[in-house]
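User: We ran a pulldown and think these components assemble together. Before we commit to crystallization trials, I'd like a predicted model of the whole complex to look at. Sequences follow.
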Amino acid sequence: GAGVSQTPSNKVTEKGKYVELRCDPISGHTALYWYRQSLGQGPEFLIYFQGTGAADDSGLPNDRFFAVRPEGSVSTLKIQRTERGDSAVYLCASSNPTGLAIGTDTQYFGPGTRLTVL
Amino acid sequence: GDSVTQMEGPVTLSEEAFLTINCTYTATGYPSLFWYVQYPGEGLQLLLKATKADDKGSNKGFEATYRKETTSFHLEKGSVQVSDSAVYFCALSDLWGSNYKLTFGKGTLLTVNP
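Assistant: Here's a predicted model for the assembly, 232 residues in total across the polymer chains.
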């Protein structure tokens, strides 16, 4: 079946511009996560959705970053007034809670969106 | 806070060599442990996981054992192939903390030569 998809695969923008990154999770997965991976680093948590609501947005670096998931499926990560330091690969993952502790669930990752801010 | 430290790469091996990638962790609670792999041009994929002490995760000839006493989850494979060339990430989720959040190590690049 289809995995997690993310669009666009690459995004080049200029400093100060606004960007939107889209994530389509695996059908039926209620949990959705965004991570950011800088060059030479492991992914870092940004935000977690359970259904439509952001259960934890503590990883968002500042108020220029915002994410929504209005219908509990597709999610959009929005970055205002982009800065060069925002350049990274943005990863989306989804999981289907098994009823056991969610920490044991497998998160399925998309291919990522590479964002470059010039 | 939670953290994962893994062996720095790059690691270069010949085909059929034995592989070990070390991973140690710090967690405030009781973590589940994961190894993810990223093949060139592809997204992160779960390789194996272990959710309690002394559990062994295994997949595709790779193994890792959850050692609570040494806070380690080292990845091993007895005979690597060229197709194993990838970046390997150790990760944890802490069941007593924000247990949905994966904390990753920095990754280890493995190159296997024929």
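Chain A touches chain B at residues 3-4, 31, 33, 35, 40-45, 48, 55-56, 58-59, 91, 93, 95, 101-112 (CB under 8 Å). That may be worth checking against your pulldown data before setting up trials.

User: Thanks, that helps.
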